[in-house]
Structure formats: C-alpha cells, structure tokens
Amino acid sequence: MHKRLFIPGPVEVSKEVLQKMSTPMIGHRTKDASNLQRSISEKMRKLMYTESEILLSTSSGSGLMEGAIRSCTRKRAAVFSIGAFGDRWHKMAATNGVPADKFSSEPGKPTTPEMVDEVLSTGKYDLITITHNETSTGVMNPVEEIAEVMKKYPEVVYCLDAVSSLGGTKIEVDKLGVDICITSTQKCLGLPPGMAICSFSEKAVEAAKQVQFRGVYLDLLDLYNYIKKKDYQYPSTPSLSHMFALDYQLDRILEEGLENRFARHSEMAGYVRSWAKEKFDLFPEEKYASNTVTAIKNTRNIDVGALNKKLGEAGYMISDGYGDLKGVTFRIAHMADTQPEEIKKLLSIIDGILFEN
Ligand SMILES: *Cc1c(COP(=O)(O)O)cnc(C)c1O
C-alpha cells in the first residue's frame, strides 16, 4: 500500500505531475528545450519575486548549495547554522577548500540579525549563507530582520537555503537582498526529487568571475553563461522529465494563486501547532515555528517508530527527529499540495493511535 507522505521531502506528488514526468524526450539542444527552460525561469521569477536570472541544476538542492559557496566566495564565507543543513553547508565549504567560518545557534533557536551584524562588521567575509527554514528543527529564520542588517553590507553575497520553504511561504528574494536563493523540487514545489533551482543576481555573477576554481558541474557562472550565450540551454544534459513536470506544476501553483498557496500552508501549520501544543509541545519557540514543517517536542516520550509503523498500516507516514533529535522530537510536514483536510485527518488518526484504546 502507498503511504501518504507527511515527511519534509520527498512529498506527495499529484498524478498529473507524475504523468508529465513521462513526456516523450526532446533534444536538449533544440529550440523546444530553450523554450521549456525559458518558460520555467519566467514562472520561477514570479514565485521568487525576483528579476534575477534563474539557474536549474540536475542535482538535488545540495548541489546548488555546494555550487554557490564554491563559485562565489572570493575571500571568506560566514556560514550561519541553526541545524543539520547549515552544518552541511559549512562542510561543503571546508571540503572544497573554501575558507569559511561557522556561526551556530542552539538547536531550536534562529540566526539573529544581531549575530549577522556582529560577524559582518569584522569585514572578514564577502559571502554569507543563511538557512531560511531549518528542516531538522522546524525553525524559520527572521529573514526580514536579517535583510535590514544586510543593507549595511552591499558587497557581501547573500545565499539563502530555501529548500524546504520556497513555494510554501512568501520569500521576496529581491526585497530581501538575496543574491542566490536555492530550492529543490521535492519539497514545497510538489515534484519528485532530482532537480534544484536558484536565483542568481548580477552581484553573484560578478563575484563568481573573480573566483578561479569553480569546478565544472556545479559552476554557477557556467550555468549562467550558457543561458546567456546559448539562449536558455544547459551545459550538460538536464533532466528534461523534471523540466516538463516543473513547467506544468508552476502553472498549477500560479493558478492556485501565490497568496492562496501561502495562506493554505499557514492554515495547515496552525492546525499542527495547536495540536502539538495541546498534546505535546513545540520544539522551537513559537515565534520562529516553520510554516512548512512542525518539529514537535516528544514530551510524552512516545515511541515514534512504533507510531509511524501504525500510521503506515493506515497509509500514512510522518518523520522522526533528525540526527541527534531522533526520538526527542518528531516532525510533521505540511507542504506542497497537501490540503488542510488531509492534515486534520492525519492528526485524528494519530490521536486514535496514541490516545484511544
Ligand atoms: C532537504 C533540505 C536540503 C537538502 O536538499 P536536497 O534536495 O535533499 O539536496 C537542504 N536544506 C534544507 C533546509 C532542506 O530541508
């Protein structure tokens, strides 16, 4: 039996989108391929509220995270980590020989604008990375406040990991001053895993031009140059299947209406949060609780594995805590095409398993 996924990626994918994945192939050096990529880029710009160029990568989101820090750090990167995905970004820098320092917050706590200001005021850094929505702890960072601080540092390239939030909550890339906003297909966009997307500002282009060793496959400047020189084509062979599906899914997202889509995510987050507060507790401070995934503190010390096994028998799946937070927390994702009714149903089934017998 198929288990409906309430995990923070991969998510449930609609039948229509799955069907688009099986569109017959076209040549990747054809006018049709250019038109497909251009169409995706135009729609992604709306979703990201940006005028910047859009880059596609046939990799998961991690590919563009690695590509961004490697391609655009000239001097030194400041990596702000609030959990597993921030830590991963620092590891990517370290293992690529990119000079970087990590500034961590305690699990469940955000990156504060004060932290960013203090670090950047040293003048040591020309690139920062921020995790918009830390999937391991369910924290959504205060990016509007961080944007205010960033205005003081116009020379710093701002990279934002929006892998588990873009498409589920409003991220106004240009207004926030983000140079590289990264996401991937298998979370709030509601597609199968296998493709990543980012915005790439002129400032990021100029920074990358000054970096000598950018690699090949994840060289963001190479992806950008191909778009400009080859009319929206991709340097190697992209996952055309994802591109067909993404182009179609972006139409559906725009048809739903961005404000409606974000409101639906808030509504679902509201249900899960109230349930969590009533039956358990929230892991992060409520002010920073994510709109796309809720991390619940396991105050009753339930056996999350056993709960998930029972849920599986009913055709559902949620997530245990991530890494060290396994068992201490568990997570329910409310992202992509999931409907509020489905969340209510899931919560009532969990109640049935945990509290009624
Ligand atoms: C899932 C996730 C990633 C990694 O993305 P992949 O597409 O699996 O490579 C990075 N950051 C965050 C916040 C995520 O949730």
From the structure above, extract its key features:
alpha/beta; 15 strands; binds pyridoxal-5'-phosphate; Aspartate Aminotransferase, domain 1; 357 residues; 7-stranded mixed beta sheet; Aspartate Aminotransferase, domain 2; globular; 4-stranded antiparallel beta sheet
Summarize the structure.
By secondary structure, this protein is of the alpha/beta class. The chain has two domains: 4-9 and 257-355, Aspartate Aminotransferase, domain 1, CATH 3.90.1150.10; 15-255, Type I PLP-dependent aspartate aminotransferase-like (Major domain) (Aspartate Aminotransferase, domain 2).
Secondary-structure blueprint:
Layout lengths: L3 E2 L9 H6 L10 H18 L4 E5 L3 H12 L4 E5 L2 H12 L4 E5 L8 H8 L6 E5 L1 E2 L4 E2 L2 H8 L6 E5 L11 H4 L3 E5 L11 E5 L1 H8 L10 H10 L10 H17 L1 H22 L1 E2 L10 E5 L6 H10 L2 E2 L1 E2 L8 E5 L6 H16 L2
Parallel strand pairs: 1-13, 3-4, 3-5, 5-8, 8-9
Antiparallel strand pairs: 2-10, 6-7, 9-10, 11-12, 12-15, 14-15
Helix pairs in contact: 2-10, 5-6, 10-11, 11-13
Bound molecules: pyridoxal-5'-phosphate.
The site of pyridoxal-5'-phosphate has 14 residues, from helix 3 and strand 6.
